[in-house]
C-alpha cells in the first residue's frame, strides 16, 4: 500500500451476529473498523478530538516532548500535531497493538503537516516518558488495570514540565444508581441512533465488561492530584463520557 492510499475503513459489524462471549481486544479486526466504531460508540468523540488541538496549542512548550499514549489510529496524535507550533518539539504516539500502529502510520503519512511523528509499538506502562509539556490519554486509562493507573499517572506527572498538562478522556461511572442507570440508558440510545442493534450493544457490553473498568469523576480527580498534578478540571462531558485537564503549576 502506498503512502498516498488510506487504509480501507469498514463499517463496524463485529458484534452483529450472535457469538460466544470473549473479552474485547484491539486486534486487526477492530483496527479495520475502529474509526466507525468509535464515532458511533463514544458520545462527543468528534468534539473532543479537535479540542485536543486547541488544548495542545495552549500548553505546548518549545523543545519539549508531546505524547499520545494509547494512540490507536492516531486521531488525537494528529490533533496534537496541528496544535504544536514549535518545530523543535517531538511528538510520540504509543500503542501496544501492532495492527493499530500499522494503520496509524498510514494516517500520519497522509496528514499534511511538517512536524515528524514517532510511533512506538510499546506498552504505555513501561515506555520512556521525559521532558513532556502535553500528554494525551484519550479513552486509554480505562483499559489499564486499576492498580496500575496511579503508577502510570505518577510517571506522566513526574515527566511533565511545570506549566504542562495531561488531557485525560474516560468513560465514567456514577455513585448514584439512578444517575448511572439514566446515563447508561442515554448512551445506549445514542448507539441505537447510530445504527447499532440491541444484540450489538449487548454483546459489545459483555465483551468490554472485564476489560474496560470505569471509575467516578472524583476517583479520577483525587488520583490525578495524588500523582503530582496541581489542578484538575472537567472541560467536557457528554452522558457518561468525560474529558479532564490535569495541569502542573508553573514554577
UniProtKB/TrEMBL annotation:
Similarity-based family: Belongs to the class I-like SAM-binding methyltransferase superfamily. Cx-SAM synthase family.
CDD domains per the UniProt record, alphabetical: AdoMet_MTases
Name of the featured protein: Carboxy-S-adenosyl-L-methionine synthase
Enzyme Commission numbers on file: 2.1.3.-
Reactions this protein catalyses: prephenate + S-adenosyl-L-methionine = carboxy-S-adenosyl-L-methionine + 3-phenylpyruvate + H2O
Lineage of the species this protein comes from: Bacteria, Pseudomonadati, Pseudomonadota, Gammaproteobacteria, Pseudomonadales
Quaternary context: Homodimer.
Role description: Catalyzes the conversion of S-adenosyl-L-methionine (SAM) to carboxy-S-adenosyl-L-methionine (Cx-SAM).
Entries under SUPFAM superfamilies matching the protein: S-adenosyl-L-methionine-dependent methyltransferases (SSF53335)
Keyword terms of this UniProt record: S-adenosyl-L-methionine, Transferase
Amino acid at each position: 500500500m502506498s503512502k498516498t492510499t488510506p487504509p480501507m475503513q469498514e463499517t463496524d459489524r463485529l458484534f452483529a451476529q450472535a457469538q460466544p462471549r470473549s473479552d474485547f481486544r484491539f486486534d486487526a479486526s477492530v483496527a479495520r473498523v475502529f474509526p466507525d466504531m468509535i464515532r458511533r460508540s463514544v458520545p462527543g468523540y468528534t468534539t473532543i478530538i479537535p479540542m485536543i488541538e486547541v488544548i495542545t496549542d495552549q500548553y505546548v512548550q518549545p523543545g519539549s516532548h508531546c505524547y499520545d499514549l494509547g494512540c490507536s489510529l492516531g486521531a488525537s496524535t494528529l490533533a496534537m500535531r496541528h496544535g504544536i507550533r514549535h518545530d523543535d518539539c517531538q511528538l510520540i504516539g504509543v500503542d501496544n497493538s501492532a495492527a493499530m500502529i500499522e494503520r496509524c502510520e498510514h494516517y500520519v503519512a497522509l496528514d499534511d503537516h511538517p512536524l515528524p511523528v514517532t510511533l512506538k509499538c510499546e506498552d504505555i506502562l513501561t515506555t520512556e516518558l521525559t521532558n513532556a509539556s502535553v500528554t494525551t490519554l484519550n479513552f486509554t486509562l480505562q483499559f489499564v488495570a486499576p492498580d496500575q493507573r496511579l503508577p502510570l499517572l505518577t510517571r506522566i506527572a513526574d515527566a511533565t514540565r511545570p506549566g504542562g498538562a495531561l488531557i485525560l478522556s474516560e468513560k465514567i461511572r456514577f455513585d448514584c444508581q439512578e444517575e448511572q442507570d439514566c446515563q447508561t440508558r442515554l448512551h445506549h440510545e445514542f448507539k441505537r441512533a447510530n445504527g447499532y442493534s440491541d444484540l450489538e450493544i449487548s454483546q459489545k457490553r459483555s465483551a468490554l465488561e472485564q476489560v474496560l473498568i470505569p471509575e467516578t469523576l472524583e476517583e479520577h480527580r483525587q488520583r490525578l492530584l495524588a500523582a503530582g498534578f496541581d489542578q484538575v478540571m472537567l472541560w467536557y462531558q457528554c452522558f457518561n463520557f468525560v474529558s479532564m485537564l490535569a495541569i502542573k503549576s508553573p514554577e
